[in-house]
Amino acid sequence: MAAPTAAGLCPRLRAWLPRLTQVRWSRYNPSFLEPEVNKELYQKPFNELSEEEKEKQELKAVHPIKAAPPSISSSVFSDPMISKFTNMMMKDGNKVLARSLMAQTLENIKRKQLEKYHRAPDDEKERVECNPYVIFHQALKNCQPIIGLSNITRGGKTYQVPVPLKDNRKRFLAMKWLITECRENKHRRTLMPEKLSEELIQAFNNEGPIIKKKHVLHKMAEANRAYAHFRWW
Amino acid sequence: MLRSVKGFICRPLKLDHGYALHMAAKDCFSSVVSQDVQTPAEKPRAIFYTNESDPIKTFQEACVMVRKPALELFTYLKNSNFAHPVVRYVIYGERGTGKTMTLCHVVHFCARQGWLVLHIPDAHLWVKNCKELMQSSYNKERLDQPLQASFWLRNFRTTNEHFLKEIKTQQKYVWGKRDSTEQGRPLGEVVEQGLTRVKNASDAVGVVLKEIKQQCCLGSFRVLVAVDGVNALWGRTTLKKEDKSPVSPEELTLVYNLRKMVMNNWSGGAVVTTLSQTGSLFKPSSAHLPHELLGKEGFDALDPFVPILVPNYTEREFESCYHYYLHCRWLQHEKARTEDGKEELRFLSGCNPWQLERLSAPL
């Protein structure tokens, strides 16, 4: 929500504007329903559907349906986390480039892990993880901080207060740290997929600069434990 | 000898990052080839740089799928009469269908049988992005390319070592004031001369091709000339002389000598070539037929030839490629093992080998 400014309008019209307006809102009529992207639901014959699903199907016959956003795909290989990460990597709306960088990163991870797999002795081969998606998800999970810091001003001074983080915020911070680390701390000639694959494999093994950053944040939160009572939410 | 088991599967080349990847795959192919023909296995391997997409590094093996066009070529080569003038085969097809891999398969087959293989991995590299162009000392109008010539000579030496000792020069060659190769010296000396004095590398290539052409008519050895991207020899170049005027292909020594090799005025071998639109210059991306890519000049020069079409994967070939990727752990996504995943890959790639490889890379 945001307060609208009406700098050029005369006072009578300014009184007509509401005090707060929604920043992100939808032009759809409330009667519009969300689209169903799950293929399996359509392949089930009518008799096997449960009661609520039958009701939903009947509702759909009467109500209009919203258009599906282009980021959702019914492909079996699509992953919402990977899409979110690709969007964060994207610059100036160049989704083609961001997607190809992501594909190259996953390929690099796969190649490095396959090499490690072939070099490992037979009894250790089972432990080498070659699936780039598993490595990606695990690395992100390892990079997520548990507790964050928030600025609270009391009596003129600003304190860093430890605060629990929501899931979305944790995921966002992990992805943001990963991308900024790969953009800034690399040699001019190394490419993004190479650096990203290196960082993801390190984060998967719980080592590397992003894990260190997470630990530094945790230590700061631990150090500022005294101010925790400043939090009111 | 060649194992014709259909279960042997291929990873088609990645043509998106540039044609240097062709070179690497073919270089590592030549290393696989020379391992069979000669015993020291480590020596050839050390020379070729391993590229990131090198299958030997990732899978510890390099495989080729046995497909119909290659088998067709093998029957033709087996039944060809080597007393007749040499037959030219042109492998053509849409982008990414496996023309270069078919050529590599034929090269491997002939090398196993003990032929002398003159393999030019990509003729397009000779007509573009050339850093050093020098005026040829032999003929004032022509231009030399020392880097490309020395690179090719090095690979030639590695793949055909024992032939270099057997073939003797039939005339004296004078390289400069103090260097000359006498008549009757082994061809290896000419190659060494080209490699040590890089200025004479293009002329050394010309001498090698001339000697091989003259001597293979006698019948002591068979020669396979394998050129990838033969349409580069008759197209246009992006090179410019010092006065910024454009260079046409016949003004380059390497191209001139290679054109003479691809003519059918000698006998005792075969010429297998591939058309390639991907590296070609000034050709639209929809052009894949011989007439479109070779142009009038090239078509007349190569005419008569045996055209060999390489189509997309059939159902069976797609299945075997998919199962190979699963077997060598290239497809790692859990959903890729399911029927839905397979159908999705089949639909998205349209059974095109290159598309399938590009799609399965991040999966």
Describe it for me?
The complex is a heterodimer of chains A (233) and B (363). Chain A is mainly α and 233 residues long. Chain A folds into 2 domains: 30-77, no CATH class; 79-230, Ribosomal Protein S7 (Orthogonal Bundle). Helices cover 50% and strands 7% of the residues of chain A. Chain A contains 9 helices and 2 strands; from the N terminus they run ααααααββααα. Chain A has a two-stranded antiparallel ribbon with strand order 1-2. In chain A, helix 4 (80-89) packs across helix 5. Chain B has helices at residues 20-37, 42-47, 55-59, 68-78, 99-113, 146-159, 161-166, 187-196, 201-216, 253-262, 290-302, 315-327, 339-349, 353-360; strands at 87-92, 116-120, 134-135, 143-144, 173-174, 180-181, 223-228, 269-274, 306-309. In chain B, helix 6 packs antiparallel against helix 8. Chain B contains 14 helices and 9 strands. In chain B, the strands form 3 sheets. A 5-stranded parallel β-sheet of chain B has the order 2-7-8-1-9. Chain B has a two-stranded antiparallel sheet with strand order 3-4. Chain A binds chain B through residues 75-77, 102-104, 106-108, 110-111, 114-115, 117-118, 130-133, and chain B through 52, 57-60, 329-330, 332-336, 338, 340-341, 344, 361-363.
